[in-house]
Specification:
Strand content: 5-15%
Distance between the termini: 37 Å
Order of helices and strands: EHEHHEHHEHEEHEHEHEHEH
Helix content: 25-40%
Number of helices: 11
Radius of gyration: 18 Å
Mean pLDDT: 94
Shape: globular
Oligomer: single chain
């Protein structure tokens, strides 16, 4: 199954006999507190207008655990995640479509978690809510309880040690902006730079100006040029496991399986014993 769905395809599916479950994951990684501006409120945005039938899911509360030594967005408690998904109407035998405000990062985090916990049919709305031309519905939705029972796997998940090893034995992609990879700036974490051996691959280069993914062939060419030869194992990390999920999604669109280091740079850099590389080269 394709990992993404267009707005026109979604409209057609919603009008069908067995419409997908819709999850609204509007969220922003914001420096709002430092700037003195009010924090982004995804739930308020959702209540102001969402694709009819969509249920809001809070990324910080439901798609991540409490921030700490394991990173800013560590894995959520699996039982809590399963309960949230069931409350949203998710069942294993029904398609799920997730979307966010358009950046795609938050939706990709939900997509990755559902896939990691065993859901067989999850897609991301390509371009997010900005691509949707249909009507919006205000307020909250109250779907019938779903039956989804999450079952995790280890093949799609990297810890810090596995990420470090993969940077040497396979291909570890850093999805953050190039200036953070180089260590020129670091607006969030303790120190700038990258995991030694990791290759810079900003996730922003996987999409077009309107926020939709580049064609699969273009993405495949991009990742091949970075070292995804088809024989080597591929992993991804970012700042805290959100934009990295978007890169894993882009790789899936290109037909390249990849694992995610969820703790990412926020976990790696918090441990002063772990090495830090700087500059444009993997080292």
């Amino acid at each position: 199954m394709n990992a993404i769905i267009s707005a026109s395809e979604l409209a057609s599916d919603l009008a069908g006999e067995n419409p997908p479950v819709l999850l609204d994951i509007r969220w922003q990684l914001s420096m709002a507190k430092a700037a003195g501006a009010p924090a982004f409120d995804g739930r308020a945005e959702y209540r102001a207008g969402h694709i009819p039938g969509a249920v809001f899911v809070d990324l910080d509360a439901d798609l991540a655990g409490k921030a700490g030594s394991a990173g800013r967005h560590p894995l959520p408690d699996v039982e809590h995640f399963g309960a949230v998904m069931r409350a949203a109407g998710v069942s294993a035998d029904r398609d799920v479509v997730v979307y966010d405000g358009g950046q795609g990062w938050a939706a990709a985090r939900a997509w990755w978690l559902l896939r990691w916990t065993g859901h067989p049919s999850v897609r991301v709305l390509d371009g997010g809510l900005a691509a949707w031309a249909g009507p919006l519905e205000p307020g909250d939705e109250h779907p019938a309880e779903g039956t989804f029972a999450p079952v995790t796997n280890t093949t799609d998940l990297l810890d810090a040690d596995a990420a470090a090893a993969l940077a040497r034995s396979g291909l570890l992609l850093d999805a953050r902006a190039a200036e953070r990879y180089r260590g020129d700036v670091e607006p969030i974490d303790r120190v700038g730079g990258h995991i030694p051996g990791a290759v810079s691959a900003p996730t922003t280069e996987n999409v077009t100006a309107d926020g939709t993914f580049r064609p699969a062939a273009e993405l495949a060419d991009r990742f091949n040029s970075l070292g995804a030869s088809g024989t080597s194992e591929v992993g991804v990390y970012c700042g805290s496991g959100v934009s990295g999920a978007h890169e894993v999604l882009a790789l899936a669109v290109a037909g390249i399986p990849a694992s995610l280091y969820v703790g990412s740079w926020s976990e790696w850099s918090s441990d002063e014993s772990r090495p830090v590389a700087k500059g444009p080269d993997p080292q």
